[in-house]
Write a structure and sequence with these properties.
Largest sheet: 5 strands, mixed
Distance between the termini: 27 Å
Structural class: alpha+beta
Radius of gyration: 16 Å
Number of domains: 1
Number of strands: 5
Helix content: 40-55%
CATH class: Alpha Beta
Shape: elongated
Amino acid sequence: MGQQLQLFIIKILIKMNSKLNSQKIAMGKILIGLLMAVGLLAMSAFGPNVSTESKTSTTKSEKNQGKVYDKVEQMPEFPGGQTELVNFLVNTIQYPKESLKKGTQGKVFVGFVVGIDGSILKARIERGVDPLLDAEALRVVNSMPKWIPGKEKGKDVAVQFTLPINFRLQ
């Protein structure tokens, strides 16, 4: 597993270095990708965190979710797995320009529910860093495609999930 992760990270570094124009932005995105990969590995080892209730309004889709689980037999998964999740995050995150200028960085924890149909519901900041970074993390999570839903006793169920997103400058 360790060698696969190292090869994956090296591939991301090579791929990103050939695509990105600005060295500063490239390094920021590379660090974001690396830190998220480590965070995802740690998160898969410890499971999702229990979080507070959402302060957003409930939609019709959310009402049909039934019980929201914290842990299930089969946890929800981003289409393509963790590798594709990291690729999605690296390619979608746009470090806010004002945060770049101020040198603002840190880890934003975004909680959300992966619905029975795999949709992202009730996304919220569980632990934020800065309003601009928090807003960007929420934007990215809300733009995710549908996930493969979690399963409990063979049935698709809604599952609480927490995703750490690292914003780090070098």
